Amino acid sequence: MVDVAEIVSEISKSKKYSDVSLSVVERICHEMACKYSKKKEILKAAKKELHIIHESFFATDSHKDAVALIDQHQGETLLKDKAVSLQLMELHSSTKERVVFANDIYVFLQKHITPNTTLADIGCGFNPLSLPLLQIQPKCYSAFEINQGTIDMLNLYFNKINKDNYKAYMLDAVTDVPDEKFDLIFLFKLLPVLQQQKKGRAFEILNELKFKKAIISFPIKSLSGKEKGMEEFYSSFFESGLSPKFKIIEKNILGNELFYVIEEIK
Asked: Which of 34, 68, 97, 154 counts the highest number of beta carbons within 10 A?
């Protein structure tokens, strides 16, 4: 019988995945152990899954380069510097796609953010580093990720810009959601990743989260730039699967992303 704990330990000690939440690694290894009987097969499948949901978004020194750039600046300067923000966004493949279209995207997002907004960014990646692109920042910003390196880097950034109500936390969104209720929740390109790991999770998480509004996005091009009918697929997937307890109040295509704004019907 395969010792799954041994596989978890081996993956967690590897350089590529040492920063990934242990609970995520454990969950994926146990899922693969239900599909495969040999250690080699389980290990290979688990690493493949981790690459898809995590590693594919990062360059080799993404966190190191981000920390070095953040350390070069102080407080108000860093918060107002759009050029540095765009440089930081370039270090993560998901936010890198937004750079060319940043003005349109963040003007769109700004419509839903006031100085009193409490915001949660789930599966945030490097998106919190885009704060200088917003003319008005939210009152509170809770960022959630599965990578400790990302969490540490974001908390360094939040400290640098003197935002006491901004904090990054570890969260496996496949199994958990924050307890708090938020005015606004970002779920950028996250639902397809959740759906891949657990069928039905894309809509399950919306029912579990507590919010006034949520802004959800889907990729309409692959990381290599190919369209592959993704806009039509995700439009149909989301609009047909969304619970009737929610209504879509806005739909927009900006850059390589399809955005939806939803709220609960009262």
From this structure: 154
Q: Are 47 and 39 in contact (CB under 8 A)?
A: no
**How far, in Å, CA of 49 to CA of 56, rounded?**
10
Which contiguous run of DSSP H or E holds residue 46? helix 39-53
**Tokens standing for 139?**
């009152």
Per-residue pLDDT tens digits for 58-68: 666 888 999 99
Task: Please count the residues of the chain.
Answer: 266
Which of 193, 184, 76 lies closest to 123 in space, CA to CA?
193
56: its two tokens: 């594919």
d(CA 189, CA 39): 32
Check pLDDT > 70 for residue 220.
yes
Cα 124 to Cα 118: distance, rounded to the nearest angstrom: 15
Among residues 48, 40, 55, the alpha carbon closest in space to that of 7 is found at 40
CA gap 146, 31 in Å, rounded: 17
What does 113-147 look like in DSSP terms, one character per residue? --TT-EEEEET-TTGGGGGGG-SS--SEEEEEESB
Task: Tell me which residue of 160, 108, 100 sits closest to 129, measured CA to CA.
Answer: 160
Cβ contacts of 129 within 8 Å, gap of 6 or more: 66, 85, 88, 89, 95, 154, 157
Q: 51 or 182, which is more confident?
A: 182
Pair 203, 260: CB distance under 8 Å? no
Q: Is residue 110 over pLDDT 60?
A: yes
Q: Give the Cα separation of 52 and 32 in Å (integer).
A: 14
Query: Rounded CA gap, 185 and 171, in Å?
Result: 14
